[in-house]
Amino acid sequence: MEKNSLKTAFFTTITLLWMAQNTQAQTEKKQKNSIIDSLYIQETENKYQRAKVLHAEPLYIDLIRDLGARKGEREWNVGLGLTDKNKYDEYIALVEYEWAPIDRLGFEVELPFSFYPSAHNATTPDSKLNGLKLATQYSFFVSEKLKTSMAVGYIHEFGLNSFNNYSNEKLFTGNTYNPFFIVAKRWGNNFHTLLYTGPAIEHHSETNATHTSWQINSNFHYMIPGTKNFIGIECNKEIQTKDFDMTIRPQMRVAVAENLLIGIVTGIPVNRENERFSSFLRLIYEPKH
């Protein structure tokens, strides 16, 4: 009996020591991640500069510049994507450059391309540079206390003809006018929500016709403790006369270097009348300033 009691006491002691050590290790890890989170937030929300709140930026419909952007910030983006359009495949590519010449004001220039390498049929469009996009965004409200930012902006796209028609038709086919509003809030250190909305008004030069649709993009992200990485979901909704389309885009962002990030996005349409699944990859490079 004595031996059994001693064995029981020994194993109980070892188990308790292991549990205590494991609990301490987990606590230290959580504390370390919390410190890293705080340092990352502190780095963004530098008290010696104008107020800025750290927000997770959606990867598919991204922002013109960080909310609360500071003078001298710059960023390069390269994107590649593939969409199953039911009867043909669409490959997209884009190059973006964005910068902030003064605090809270951002500008962007974007060149979006569409390619259709699969066998052509009557419904397959021609490959083209979709247009020249020029955009600006101003953060008019930034509260570190409320962890909330708001901004207004405007995107102007000069529509371009397909490559095959450059010599036969007009180079520019029309304009798209897209004012927008953004509100974002961080909940604690890791949870982020953002709403991006506004009308897109397309004007076709040849027919002088206009077409208006409303875009409502809602986002929810969770930033992984101790990293710049996040996982989240982006819901892109488009409202037209007697029509509503929504694509759900699960996504993740991974830091591969100090100033280099990769974003991976999957597109799942709620109604597959126009397209099926899609995928998108965004490479983000932010030079030091």
Automatic annotation (TrEMBL):
Superkingdom as given in the UniProt entry: Bacteria
Entry protein name: Phosphoribosylformylglycinamidine synthase
Organism (species): Flavobacterium flevense
